[in-house]
Design goal:
It contains 6 helices and 11 strands. The chain is α/β, with parallel strands linked by helices and about 270 residues long.
Amino acid sequence: MKTQKAKRPLILLVNDDGFFSPGLSALCEALDPLGDLLIVAPDRQQTSMGRAYPKKDDLGIIKKNLIQTSTKNFEGYSITASPAYAVAYAVKEISNIKPDLCVSGINYGENLGKTLSYSGTIGAALQASDLDIPSIAISRPTSLDVINNKNYLTLDWTISKKVISYWVEKVIKEGFPFDAPILNVNVPDEIENVFDFKYTFQSKKELFEFVKPGSRDFNKPYQLPSEKRTNFSDIEIDSDIYTVCVNKITSVTPIECDLTYKKFFNK
């Protein structure tokens, strides 16, 4: 009697850094052994897009493209759309099968604290969750100057790949912890054991802060400067920011698309 092969899950891969981001390539390599991959991403850099649905003249142009890695080439789709919109196109138009899981990343730059409210990586995961697809967002630290850069910095993705492989395999076998619709995973660079992690809550503080600029001409385009926090004395100890930036441990935060002010229920 022949043993029937277990069905491989369909995993939707997306990001906000663009289709040709090395972070997406690393994600392909990490998750290829664990499932069938549906790779869909914005055709260009879309950092800090949140869950926006921008209406533009070239919206919705879909092109087949190849992601070339050291192990194999992966076929996917680049779309002139935001990260969240790309997820919608993937589920509603590109695939005839609903994905079993969505993984968004691997992102250049941490998604911690209030950053989640404008993160394109989180926005894609929220969109997938809204379509009843459980999701994992994964991010790693980088310097602030490369987060929005179209010229991708060369990084070692080894640790992040091992961490996301562990978590995808874990949720495939065991389901999502706490029945959470989304897990926000942030991987520090300096971890000794890739399997060490801590469940955290989202900090109420901001990791990146705008800096007051000098005098300028208001009639000319200008981007407000910002800086990454270096003082963590006022950060909540069990929060995502403290865990990654101070304890140097992988932070796993269960999140959902619920912005209700919780103290309302106490009144």
